[in-house]
Amino acid sequence: MLTLDNPALLKQACYLAGNWSAADDGRTFAVHNPATGALLAELPYMGAAEAGRAIAAAEAALPGWRARSAKERAQLLRRWHDLMLANQQDLARIMTAEQGKPLAESQGEIAYAAGFIEWFAEEARRIDGDVLQHPQADKRIMVLKQPVGVCAAITPWNFPAAMITRKAGAALAAGCTMVVKPASLTPLTALALAELAGQAGIPAGVFSVMTGGADAIGTEFATNPTVRKLSFTGSTAVGAKLLAQCAGTIKKVSMELGGNAPFIVFDDADLDAAVDGLMASKFRNTGQTCVCANRVLVQDGIYDAFATRLAARMAELKVGNGMEEGVNQGPLINDEAVSKVEAHIIDALGKGATLLVGGKRHARGGTYFEPTLLGDVTADMLVAREETFGPLAPLFRFTTEADAIHMANDTEFGLASYFYSRDIGRIFRVAEALEYGMVGINVGAFSNEVGPFGGIKQSGLGREGSKYGLDDYLELKYLCLGGIG
Ligand SMILES: NC(=O)C1=CN([C@@H]2O[C@H](COP(=O)(O)OP(=O)(O)OC[C@H]3O[C@@H](n4cnc5c(N)ncnc54)[C@H](OP(=O)(O)O)[C@@H]3O)[C@@H](O)[C@H]2O)C=CC1
Ligand SMILES: O=C(O)CCCC(=O)O
């Protein structure tokens, strides 16, 4: 049983056009706690018809929302942010219950998620146009920035709050309206955020959250001509499908997809700092993050020392129910996630890797898994190519800087990368050579509302958060004014 200070935050309905609604046919699906298997809620299993109505409500709300002054929109966003922080403990409890991450991480994610709303409330006031010099003296060029219009978003289960606010904060600040479909595994945090948006005074239809059939809702979002932009965070396969579907109505898209992050430790690195950085990067959310280190590349001269220090730190990790005090590794999200980690370990050991720590399902049962360290991992193993999305750190050995850059870039993905070095020349050379949207240099965690988050290659399109994140929700309009002279 989930105990909350404000039980009204635990929803059993969807928030469409400002009303709490059931599916048209009354169908529901169950949401379970991955730590215990307990049933948390039965939620509406909606489809294309309800998605079409949510989009129509977002269209109806658009003229009023975009006509408000930037200051008014900013004030409402600010109120939403404040309510998120006022309800931080309950939101974190809901998140840990449905997602499994330790409560401290959930509390951190609520603060991170609220940070995007606060940031875009501030940025809303600075959506300024431009006046440019025309090549002819009697004319002027003006550039206006206007909201894209109705937006839709599909979000994943690994960050149930922040992946919504990073999109919705920018959309609402720009003057767009938005319909969100959260992951079916973690919809309760999203619905609690919708409750708070309503309490903040964000008008009906400006922000809606609907749950149900991913394929039907996704197809409606991607093909309905009223939707002018679709923003997606999730797997590359689903992102590619949505991108193709969006082509029919030439929508703007933002895609934040899978990664295969290299974490490079050079001989000249501060080893303790590198171990700290890897622990932060690899084991955040039990390894279920698209920016988690997926391949740890370690230079020959410090390979053994790094492996020994890392193994000692990993042995300290406490696996358990995220609601328990002191736990820093929760369960994996489901059985498929466990199977993928197991498959990567079995494949690597079969091809010559060595097991240094962990390696199997945790004695607690369920979807708990032992934090695992593998040595002597090579490019022919599955873990070199695929995102593990679990608590597995594979160590690859390299000799030269050129080898490290080649190995790091040898993937179709380009989201996050990390390296540790104290040589300033190397820092510039390697940072410029890495084919990634984000590079952590002597840091293992870089996510915040100010930095532009996003990837290249098959990791996606567009940037979220930061002063650049608003651009994805704005259109430029060119006005040419004559007859001045
Ligand atoms: N970039 C990232 O942050 C993430 C990457 N991943 C990667 O993807 C792998 C698989 O995770 P998974 O949860 O299956 O990711 P998915 O891409 O399947 O799910 C992400 C979101 O997309 C929705 N979705 C699923 N199928 C469709 C569809 N046909 N049309 C429209 N929307 C759809 C899901 O809805 P529903 O939940 O209802 O199925 C969910 O809201 C992970 O192991 C990881 O490697 C996963 C999550 C986040
Ligand atoms: O895995 C993800 O897609 C969420 C990104 C986490 C972050 O914002 O750091």
Automatic annotation (TrEMBL):
Active site: E256
UniProt keywords, alphabetically: Oxidoreductase
GO biological process: gamma-aminobutyric acid catabolic process
UniProt-listed InterPro entries: Ald_DH/histidinol_DH (IPR016161), Ald_DH_C (IPR016163), Ald_DH_CS_CYS (IPR016160), Ald_DH_CS_GLU (IPR029510), Ald_DH_N (IPR016162), Aldehyde_DH_dom (IPR015590), Aldehyde_DH_Superfamily (IPR050740), Succ_semiAld_DH (IPR010102)
Tagged with keyword Oxidoreductase: yes
Keyword Transmembrane included in the entry's annotation: no
Location of the Aldehyde dehydrogenase domain: 20-478
Sample GO molecular function, one term: succinate-semialdehyde dehydrogenase (NAD+) activity
Gene Ontology CC terms, in alphabetical order: cytosol
CDD domains hit by this protein: ALDH_F5_SSADH_GabD (cd07103)
Any single Pfam family the record assigns to this protein: Aldedh
Matching NCBIfam families: SSADH (TIGR01780)
PANTHER family: SUCCINATE-SEMIALDEHYDE DEHYDROGENASE, MITOCHONDRIAL (PTHR43353)
Family from the record: Belongs to the aldehyde dehydrogenase family.
Protein name from the UniProt record: Succinate semialdehyde dehydrogenase
